[in-house]
Amino acid sequence: MMRNAVKEKCGYMMFFLLLGFMLIQSYMGDFGEPRFEEDIIVGLTQSEREKINQIVNADASENEIPVEVRPPDENEYIKDLDKKIEEEIDLSEFLIEDFASDSVQYVDSLELIRKAIFVEPKAVAHSDNFIDIGMILINLQKTPTFDSQFQWKITRTFDSMMTYSSGTPLHFVVITDQDSKVAVAKYFSHFISKRISEGAILQPSWRKKKMKGLPVLKISLVELKAIKQIDEPFIHALKMNTQEKDDETIDKYSSDLFYIGPLYHRAFEKLERLIFIDTTDIHFYEDVKVLHEQFDNIKDEIMGVGLDLSPHYRKFLVDYLLLNPDSPLGLPGKQQGFNTGVVLYRFDNMRKNKLYNSLLTPEKVNELSRLYMYNMTLGDQDWFTNLGFSHPELFFILPCQFNAQTSIQYLRPPWESMFDKYHYCDEKKNMKIIHRNGCGPMPEQCGYTPEPDSEYWAGKSHMTDMYMDIEALWEIMRDVHLGLVKFELFQAEGS
Residue 123 — very low, low, confident or very high, per pLDDT cuts 50/70/90? Predict the structure, then answer.
């Protein structure tokens, strides 16, 4: 009997581990921290649910590991650590602009980064052999440091970028604000220190990186206000054509930061091109240099941007389609709408394009919004999409492999039958950048439980995207083991 009990318990634990690997995105991928209270699997009886919860929450004292404080034994990984770190720093010199003396300093410490000095947008310049990468990092909660959820997400982005880097120098153009600049500086200081230390300690066989250490990095902090003030009436017009929203601490799209993209070419006067990424949910599976090479395909267009891989804009064009029932706008294809999670800006083309610049007025914003008859919800992404409906020649469509979105928000009636036409990109092995936006990877996590007789779901798994973060999985298991969190894989019925 005891043997059967042990086998039963081991069986359930193996089941739990497998679910942990399969469902790690549901805990970490979309929300940044473990979520232990949602019922994400249906179909088990109440007794089965209770039994698994009892096993998972078994008294941690049975498996307690005594805490022992002792100095580690010196071994080949710890020995000569200072020398190893120095070698890493030699290969990972951190550049920071000293605009007072107009010189570039190679620093041995991270003290200059922590000073968090703003740079005027017009002073940001390209350096030979560098790839310029723009991003927005603003702490909408206005706390001294980023919260753990936000920090986990941006670390995922930068870790993946560094992992696949072949060593091309990178210039981060970070747009932030006065309340966030210290948190941003602290974050980059910690991130760089951590990566250098790991590079010094880990043996080459443990690295999946293409290079040892970090590429040469350069950071320019730019104040959001300096870009906004270039044309505040234009930004105000965009916001006035947006659906009423909660405060920016609740709904991020209420913030000015989501409406400044159309003005970048006027802000960064010395830059001709800039990659811009959403830092919270982008995961690189290829060297960023390969993304940069896509600039070669942009001729006269103002930017390269990927499609929004959902019927989002077809839904929002409902009033327009009542008057224009034969319009192809929003249907699967080149005019299904844009997603600005990854954008390749050609500022040189934007500056010289008379048509584009003629549209940067409050009157033209209102006119475009009235034409397509919906209020924006996603900031300047909606404005660029509307502009693309009217003037598709202004945009180069970035191959979907560079912005493969995972959200299945619209995988429900009435869109189920055609969702794959919008959403499918390519085999996963060919993806360069995964954009983990929206909800998923199961429809239940998007608030929809498919009906048992659903034709679309017949014979299909509800797990649409399997994404594993091994480090996050072990952290969850550690916390459960130590009793730091109460883990309930299944909710009791009625709760």
Answer: very high
